[in-house]
Amino acid sequence: MFYFLTFPFKNGQAISGTNIIIEINVQLTYEIISMILSWADDVQVLEPKELIDIIKSKLDNARKKY
Q1: Which pLDDT tens digit goes with each residue over 22-63?
Q2: What is the pLDDT of residue 37?
Q3: Does position 1 have pLDDT exceeding 50, yes or no?
Q4: Which residue, 5, 6, 20, 43, could crosslink 39 as a Cys pair with Cβ 3.0–4.6 Å?
């Protein structure tokens, strides 16, 4: 969260208490998915459903290994 308070996006960022909502238009690439996964339990993807499904699948696969 500190990063987003220090280097805010120009548009598409709302801060409310300890929550930050960021809206960006990007292609679903390996790098974007990896960045989201690096935040693990500190982030929740709200949309698009395709990205939610990808994140869920990758986290489920990782969880099954332990």
Answers
A1: 888 889 999 999 999 998 888 999 999 999 999 999 999 999
A2: 95
A3: no
A4: 43
Taking each helix axis from N to C terminus, what angle separates 30-38 and 49-64, rounded to the nearest 10 degrees? 60
Q: How far is C-alpha 47 from the geometric centre of its chain's CA atoms? A: 10
* CB 35, CB 43: distance < 8 Å: no
Q: State the amino acid at position 46 in one-letter form.
A: L
Cα angle at 36 between 32 and 41, to 5 degrees? 175
HEC per residue, the chain: CHHHHHCCCCCCEEEECCEEEECCCCCCCHHHHHHHHHCHHHCCCCCCHHHHHHHHHHHHHHHHCC
